[in-house]
Design brief:
By secondary structure, the protein is an alpha/beta fold. The chain has one domain (about 1-94). Helices cover about 45% and strands about 15% of the residues. The protein has three helices and three strands. It has helices at about 1-15, 30-45, 75-85, and strands at about 20-25, 50-55, 90-94. A three-stranded parallel beta sheet has the order 1-2-3, covered by helices on one side. α3 links the parallel β2 (about 50-55) and β3. The protein is globular and about 40 Å long.
């Protein structure tokens, strides 16, 4: 999945402007969100429009996965914003 998404984003970036939407998941900031935001900055450019999204809510079978049974905390939302800044992104929205 990652390889296909990365390839498609790189391809799209060659031919136009992108808006990348990153859904932040609870308990997945350091393992996933951090690396995704860094990849965007390093490979698509620091000025890539990036929408850091906090709309996750557990539905249906998400309750079967302990770390996904809840919404994001305010602390996690703040950390996601910090991660976007640390990655060097200059054109992100929340």
């Amino acid at each position: 999945y990652w390889d296909v998404c990365a390839r498609n984003h790189l391809y799209g970036n060659k031919y136009g402007e992108l808006i990348i939407r990153v859904l932040v998941l609870p308990n997945h900031l350091e393992c996933c969100t951090k690396h995704i935001l860094k990849w965007i900055a390093d490979n698509l450019g620091r000025n890539t429009r990036t929408n850091v999204m906090f709309q996750y809510r557990p539905e249906w079978r998400a309750y079967e996965v302990p770390e996904l049974r809840r919404r994001l905390t305010a602390k996690e939302m703040e950390r996601a914003i910090e991660l976007a800044r640390e990655a060097g992104l200059t054109n992100f929205i929340i």
